[in-house]
Write a structure and sequence with these properties.
- By secondary structure, this protein is an alpha/beta fold.
- The protein has 2 domains: 1-151, no CATH class; 165-259, no CATH class.
- It has helices at 3-34, 71-92, 134-147, 153-161, 166-169, 177-192, 205-213, 215-221, 244-258; strands spanning 38-43, 49-56, 60-64, 104-105, 108-114, 121-123, 130-133.
- The chain is globular, with a radius of gyration of 19 Å.
- The chain starts with a helix and ends with a helix.
Length: 259
């Protein structure tokens, strides 16, 4: 069999597996949702003790302040979280360290709605656990329920959980690599799962991806840009809303598209 035939066969197999996995996850979650959501005590990154409602998948658990979310919407959300977790695990050949009984509960990595955390969303580096600020969590739910679109926050934060390369790649100061990896892998995970992304700032999700990818073209077209005066010191390009982390993601896109 020719090399390209094997490649196509492998790609089709992966696509079929992804579709079947999401369908089975939807069925499993819908069944569990009919049984009602249980109350789960959760200790946040800020050490607040919260009473939230658990929506469980196979690998992940969404913790919300609402017990009666629309079951179909939540089944789609949890299936996407399970899919993203499995995608990252497939790419890295490992899982995050389980923060047992804190952000790894009942054999699942938690994604919790909180009133305060380290940003719009936050994830432990190399460990389980993602938090999403209340307004961003609610917007994610609304966009999914009303438009069938997925916010990018948890897909990005999985890039924190699944970062295992600090010793080999991380700079000592102003490091854009750790976050740039999460920026890039967010797109990879959502594309792999064939999810429609929600708007990011004033851009559609496709426009956002294009803006990130095109940073490399701008970098290469200007001879004044070097590694030393950009990524080497944690700086992005001039006259753009995007930063050094996005520039690193643009480099990753080039490698993915051409190698």
């Amino acid at each position: 069999m020719k090399e390209w035939d094997i490649s196509q066969l492998g790609e089709k197999t992966l696509m079929a597996w992804s579709s079947n996995y999401l369908f089975c996850s939807l069925l499993l979650f819908t069944y569990c949702a009919l049984q009602g959501q249980r109350v789960q005590t959760y200790i946040s990154f800020e050490k607040d003790t919260l009473k939230l409602f658990a929506y469980e998948g196979e690998k992940t658990m969404i913790l919300s302040n609402v017990a009666d979310h629309d079951s179909l919407t939540m089944s789609k959300w949890i299936a996407a979280m399970d899919g993203a977790y499995n995608y990252y695990a497939m790419c890295t050949s490992r899982e995050p360290t389980f923060y047992n009984d804190i952000t790894y509960i009942n054999g699942r990595s938690t994604i919790a709605r909180v009133d305060k955390t380290c940003g719009a969303a936050c994830g432990y580096i190399g460990w389980t656990g993602i938090e999403i600020m209340n307004t961003f969590f609610d917007r994610f739910y609304d966009d999914l329920a009303k438009k069938g679109e997925y916010g990018q926050e948890p897909f990005y934060e999985f890039g924190r959980n699944f970062w295992f390369y600090s010793d080999a790649l991380e700079y000592t100061e102003n490091d854009p690599i750790v976050t740039g990896y999460a920026v890039f892998m967010r797109f990879m995970a959502m594309d792999y799962l064939k999810l429609k992304g929600a708007n990011f700032w004033s851009w559609t999700f496709d426009e956002f991806r294009s803006e990130v990818k095109n940073l490399l073209n701008t970098y290469l077209a200007d001879p004044t840009y070097t590694w030393q005066n950009t990524l080497g010191k944690g700086a992005g390009l001039r006259n753009t809303q995007l930063g050094a982390t996005d520039l690193f993601a643009s480099f990753c896109f080039y490698l993915f598209d051409n190698h």
